[in-house]
Amino acid sequence: MDGADVGSFTHSVTRIATVSIALGIAVMLVSFSILQGFREQIQGKIFSFGAHIQLSRYDNTNSLEVAPLSEPDLRQRLGAYRQVVSVQPFARKTAIIKTTDEVLGVVLKGINEKHGPNSMRQNMVDGKFITFTDTAASPDIVVSRKVADKLRLKVGSEALFYFIQQPPRVRKFRVSGIYQTGLDEFDEVYVLGDLRQVQELNAWPDSLVGGLEVRLRDFKQLDRTFDQFYEELPYEVRVEKVTDQYAQLFDWLQLLNRNVIIFLVLIIFVATFNMVATIFIMILERTKMIGILKALGASDNQIREMFFFRGVSITLRGLLIGNAVALGFCALQYYFRLIPLDPENYYMDRVPIAWDPTMMILLNVATLVASGLAVLIPTYLIARIKPMVAIRFD
């Protein structure tokens, strides 16, 4: 093999190693961004209905309708916790919706003006949110796309709600908007309305509510805050974590996290293995050069450093290309929504993207460190190369 052939072969191997690193980091960044976006979207939909912690009164039955709580008393207690960012009242009332052609059982969830628009805006697909008034309970409701399709409702339609109580009550509501989360736990059950409607139906004063939804500054503090609430709040108050209320969804997200971690480890392993093979080939092709350098007085460590920095240079070039490809793809998907999804199967209408600079940096650092350590392995072959034998090597 002449010098030109050797150079050409080494160049090809180096290019393969660079492409391997670039593809590895690009796939990792895109995969993590999609997973993180998927998790944030699902959690956001759950939190829009249940916040982080829900407080209600203990009840011996499993009914969605429970005894009321005194909002001012609990709100004052919750104000002492720094991790609490907001407290929103709610109340639920089971009902039967009757239209001209259809009948459907639902749960009317009453919310107030401060709670609804911000948390539900991401789920609205048609119409507008409830228009609250200062003088009376609003007749507006927001129904899910599934409920609207089943009952053949659209924005502006009116529907009769029959409430099973003593005496039975009937209310006429107007559909002001339609939401869609993609989660059957919400879409098939809940209709959103004015909290004052439920209070009037139950003959409650303004100070009584069905429960309180508590949002925290940091979701990671959920378990610790839950333990504090459980120990310090009155005994008649039931404290429920959103992760317990919707355990199946959060277990599923946790399983996805484990799968992605295994996937990332495998990609890093393949990329570093390619780097080991590349450096081995470079050392074997430059055996004569190594012998000459040793004959001229170069130490093993000096020659080893030369190959080490060559390997790091290849890794850095691959990381640069891979980051450019990954960030470009993520930006295109984030702004132009090029890849759609079926909401019936994936809970959202497009592939989600989340931007997490910290994790992106960590993935790059992990790949660089792993590749750097892998490059050291073949360089120890240099110590076994004898100058006289290497000079004669062809």
UniProtKB/TrEMBL annotation:
TM region positions: 12-35, 260-284, 314-336, 361-383
MacB-like periplasmic core domain span: 16-224
Cross-referenced Pfam families: FtsX, MacB_PCD
Subcellular location: Cell membrane
Keyword terms: Cell membrane, Membrane, Transmembrane, Transmembrane helix
Location of the ABC3 transporter permease C-terminal domain: 261-387
GO BP annotation list: lipoprotein localization to outer membrane
InterPro entries, per the entry: ABC3_permease_C, Lipoprotein-release_system, MacB_PCD
Topology class, membrane: Multi-pass membrane protein
Entry annotated with the keyword Cell membrane: yes
Top-rank lineage group of the source organism: Bacteria
GO cellular component, one term: plasma membrane protein complex
Family to which the UniProt record says this protein belongs: Belongs to the ABC-4 integral membrane protein family. LolC/E subfamily.
Protein name: ABC transporter permease
Protein source organism: Hymenobacter setariae
